[in-house]
Acyltransferase
Amino acid sequence: MQYSPALDGLRAVAVLAVVAFHCRMPIAGGSIGVDLFFVLSGYLITSIMRSELTETGTVSIGRFYWRRALRLWPPLLLMLAAYTAVAPTLFPARDAFIDTALAATYLTDYAMAFWHEPLMLGHTWSLSVEEHFYLLWPLVVLATRSLSQRALAGALIVAFVAATAWRIADALIWQDWYRTYYRFDTRMSGLMLGGLIAVMPWRPKRGTAAMIGRLAAYVLIIGLLTFPFRSPAFIAWGGIAVDLAAGGLILSVISAEGTRLYRVLTLRPLVYIGMTSYSIYLWHYPVARLLRYDLHPLATLLVVAVPSIAIATLSYEFVEKPLKSMRRRLAPEGAI
């Protein structure tokens, strides 16, 4: 698939929203950044596998898993090693071990949903959601390879509606935002929507794409400022608007270059932050958890963002970039 710098710009917007939210900045819906990550991941992973399917007639599941491991594990293990070294001096060693074990085994999503653990590495729940998707999705792509593009798009519309209905039912029945918010099975709608965008046989023309992008941006800005994500009602119904708005942003920037939205998202600082967003996400949260109740939110943001971006830059330049060339030798995989 062809690289789009605007998608890295969207990653930057997503991670900056999450960092600001975790630093207690006055944005009630900062967690929307995670929803944007989910739709992006669904789009990118599906696009990569569909490209491989078109070129080779199949998808190498083993090679796909190895590429994902090279992309995700080294930065995560680096952060966990640092946490393991420091955490026992601040918390009981048993708690630090449980935190690390849950994060390393990608079980944080269900641990957070049912036991509210781990506190200091709770942000890794979203990595667990995506990892479960990566385990299952290649099998789905292979199982549906005989479908036409239109039939596959129709099947993914049904899957998106079913996943959304499941989340709504869970939220309304249990009235427990923890239980619904963190689980893979209740958060997979955005990933499904991203997959749908990747296989859609239709792309809007420039004027329509620009209008979709503006409307989606307005919805997400309003959501960032006002959406109470800890409300079961918001998780049930507001999640639909967030998924569709995130999907609208992606559809807009992949359909038309040169729009105002595209130009903003391709500003070089945003693109670079997007490239380093995975490591920024990994490193910012433990620092924010330690400091956010002792400092003013703006001071916390500065104290958290500066070292997080600095560490992420080092991780990207000296860990992620060298491994990217190794992944490309296995197979081209675009921008992810």
